[in-house]
Design brief:
Shape: elongated
Pfam families: Cyt-b5
CATH superfamily of the largest domain: Cytochrome b5-like heme/steroid binding domain
InterPro entries: Cyt_B5-like_heme/steroid-bd, Cyt_B5-like_heme/steroid_sf, MAPR/NEUFC/NENF-like
Family: Belongs to the cytochrome b5 family. MAPR subfamily.
Oligomer: single chain
Number of strands: 10
Bound molecules: protoporphyrin IX containing FE
Helix content: 25-40%
CATH class of the largest domain: Alpha Beta
CATH topology of the largest domain: Flavocytochrome B2, Chain A, domain 1
Distance between the termini: 40 Å
């Protein structure tokens, strides 16, 4: 999918500047008195948050640079204050977008940092395009997971000393309120060997594009409760 920055026109209208790494480093509250930081290559003036970002304060490590990775990892060491977000999981990248939102909402936007995320003409680099692709893929797989949970809700799980583990279905199991109860099945996703217990409507245990269902051993296929054998969890 081709990257399109939905804010590019707004950014342009806001009169953005382009900063080199060295120029941005000047805005650390000592060399220049303003405090600027960059997140995913976008530069914000955080001077009004001097109590957090000023020299000697808790979040001073973020200023004068792009330390996007540390917003997610909480690693404020010199090595941790990095702009290399490639190793982050797509859910962590989403968390990073919340920080961008915070800066967008609370602090004046100043422009773009030339480097990892933006080229010298202000257009996004391949690196940033890839990050946006990963975010879009992450969103899509989240939606698939949600849809699967709705169609095949998780079972309730109980344990007792005499009977061991029991999985059972109710019309609220997995927090999915519905007008059917269902029967427990092992639900294997095609993507892995792991399974989870899913409540399915009898007769719907056909193989589908994301996975397949297996009955619990020694459990009648139409029972809404199964006692697990020791090797089945
Ligand atoms: C991943 C770890 C963390 C990151 C990246 C982080 C980052 C930040 C940033 C950037 C701010 C300034 C927000 C602004 O400009 O409005 C902030 C504020 C603050 N943080 Fe953290 N923080 C982290 C963990 C923590 C933890 C563990 C605590 C508490 C033990 C904490 C307590 C606070 C407090 C009290 C504020 C001030 C909030 C306010 O008054 O609005 N932070 N944090």
């Amino acid at each position: 999918m081709k990257f399109a920055d939905p804010f590019w026109l707004m950014d342009l209208l806001k009169g953005e500047e382009y900063f080199t790494k060295e120029e941005l480093a000047m805005y650390d509250g000592t060399r220049k008195k303003e405090l600027y930081l960059s997140v995913l290559g976008k530069v914000y003036d955080v001077s009004k948050g001097r109590q957090y970002y000023g020299p000697g304060e808790s979040y001073h490590g973020f200023v004068g640079k792009d330390a996007s990775k540390a917003f997610v990892t909480g690693d404020f060491s010199t090595g941790g204050l990095s702009d290399d977000v490639n190793t982050l999981h797509s859910s962590e990248l989403e968390g990073l977008l919340h920080w961008v939102e915070l800066y967008e909402k609370n602090y004046p936007y100043r422009g773009k940092l030339i480097g990892r995320f933006y080229k010298s003409n202000g257009s996004p680099t391949k690196y940033l395009e890839k990050i946006h692709e990963r975010l879009a893929e992450g969103k899509q797989s989240e939606e698939i997971q949600k849809d699967l949970e709705r169609r095949f809700p998780p079972c309730n799980l109980e344990w007792s000393a005499e009977k061991g583990k029991i999985v059972w279905c109710s019309n609220k199991s997995g927090g999915i309120t519905r007008d059917w109860v269902g029967v427990p099945r092992k639900f294997f996703l095609n993507s892995g060997r792991e399974f989870r217990c899913a409540c399915i409507q009898p007769g719907s245990d056909v193989k589908h594009e994301y996975g397949y269902f297996v009955e619990y051993m020694d459990c009648p296929p139409d029972s809404d409760k199964c006692y697990l054998r020791y090797d089945e969890d």
